[in-house]
Specification:
Elements lengths: L7 H13 L9 H9 L4 E9 L5 E8 L3 E4 L4 H5 L2 H4 L6 E3 L2 E7 H7 L1 H9 L4 E8 L5 E8 L7 H45 L3 H12 L6 E8 L2 E9 L2 H12 L12 E5 L10 E9 L2 E10 L9 H20 L8 H6 L11 E8 L10 E7 L5 E8 L4 H19 L4 H14 L6 E8 L7 E8 L5 E3 L5 E3 L3 E2 L10 E2 L1 E5 L4 E5 L1 H4 L9 H4 L1 H8 L4 H9 L11 E8 L2 E9 H14 L17 E8 L4 E7 L2 E6 L1
Antiparallel strand pairs: 1-2, 1-7, 2-3, 4-5, 5-6, 6-7, 8-9, 8-12, 10-11, 11-12, 13-24, 14-15, 15-16, 16-17, 17-22, 18-19, 18-23, 20-21, 23-24, 25-26, 26-27, 27-28
Helix pairs in contact: 1-7, 5-6, 7-8, 7-10, 12-13
Length: 639
Amino acid sequence: MSAGDGPAWPDLLHALWRSAFSAGSTKVFAKELYLGLLELPHVRGVLGARFGPGGDVLVVRWADHEHGVMSGPAGLAADVAPWVAGSAGFPTRPAGQARIAELDVGELSSFAPELGARVREVGGSALVAASFRAAEGDSGLLLVSLDRAPEDETIARALEQIADVVIAADDRIADQALLDNRLAADAVLAEVSLRLARSLDVEETLRSVVRMAVPGLADGAAVHVRRDGALVQIAAAHVDVHRERLLNDHLSHGRWAGVTVDAEVDPLPSGLPADVGLELMTSAVLRARGRVLGVLTFFHRSGARRVPTPEFVRDIAARAALAIDNATLYSERRSEVEELQAHLLPSVLPALEGVEIATGYNVAGHLLDVGGDFYGVVRQPDDRFTALIGDVCGRGAAAAALTGLARHTVETILEEGGQAEDAVRLLNAKMLRDEVGKFLTLATVTFGKAGPEGLPMRSLTAGHPPPVIIRRDGAVEETACRGHLVGVLDQVTFTQVDDVLRPGDSVVLFTDGLVEARDASGAFFGDEDLEPTLAALHDLPLPEMASTLVAGDGRYAVDDDAAVLLIRYRGHRALDAVLPADQAADAALAAVRALGRTGLPDRLEVPAGQGDVTVTVDGDAEWARIEISGGAGTWWEVL
């Protein structure tokens, strides 16, 4: 086959061009590209690499007839690294958008001996290389090894054509990434604007701005407000939670470059110590009515590709400054909105066999506008049911309208037997079609029919904190599902995760108001104590667990809207009876034994009672829960 004469090469080239204008990454068509080059005459191996502006190897692939296509095989990046400097002296000729070089394996080995050895191992003795530009200042390399010196321009023409495909695909992907980043930045800016415009608690709002910026727009962020002539740190965040304390410590002690608050600055060295890992910063002054109110700073790692523009930072800073000024002039706090919020939440949740459900909700007490947190549980056909929780950006009538639209749209589709991912995609399409102008996050857990192994579940998240599983022994596991925000991008994708609940296992769904609760030192509940708290509460009745969580476990101030939805699989119901109080303990213990449990005590120490009580026992041979309720209240025990 030759590049241009036989039918196979044009077909391959046509397929590559199609892929180039639809793929989200050049990796998608790498296999057909490399295998196609291997089919050219006398080709023994193909190497592809992408280099950063400094010559560092970013991506490397290798293909040969024995092993096929390999992405990043061990040691190849180090073997290729000398190419940038070593090939600089070789003559090249232009070929379309590429430059072609021809050399033998001896010349290659003179500056890249390990790469030369790889070429010899596959029977190569001569090479044709195409170098070309890539997006974001990178460069690309395609190197074909041959078992003899090239006799014509077949290989060079093929590499020229392939370079055109890769460059076009890379440019399109880079443009799409830029557009996606701009959409994400616009969405964050809209959310920041809504929070700033509607909040009277300026410090908490500024903390939200910082948390929203990391990691989506920056690797770190901080906001300082001027008080009594000095800059006082209000909030800071770091993409690496383990380094966030270091960042806070250095900022609070003034160990950073700071800014001259008389003028705004473009990106420059941060002045932070190396252990923080944030070498650059972009800052903007918070200024309103001619007064300097503070400084907003975004920090970045050296070489970071996703850096907000100074204009974007200044835009956020201007809005933050206006919010501070308004809050200073107008300090009147707003009334609670619990009644309106209640209309956006389901009044009744379904009763499901073998499953316990509980909810908790905290309304931000200093705001009049209704929030956008919502939840629900939908019974579906074929013994399935789906729990869902979401958070609409912003507050007020628009957020309330979107909350109602979102919950009822998703629930209606689920009730008709649709899958959770279909419901989210349809909601996303509707929001974009109707130009809603807001985004929301959503998480769902769909439960199947219980079997001998337990209760199967599938988790999905769309930009929302992923569901958390609490095992019956207290172990806490965050599900690995991931997905895009709803209402921002034309196409939303998800990574769903399957799992199984055994009797006694629980699932926790929550909104970010819970994890952003702070203690007296400013530490976040989600960063410090969420998992230990869930482990400590795992045996509690779910209503008690829910109320404890939305209250911040008594240690954290939950100042924003926060919703939690808890589902516990209780397994087989071994006993459900109304009995005289003096018979309840023995009946419960007998029911636990009937489940196959061994090593039980001879009797249960149950508070004395009179009259009839209701006794329930659920579980399996390894876990059982007993509840006895009557006039004296409810007593429970986990065995």
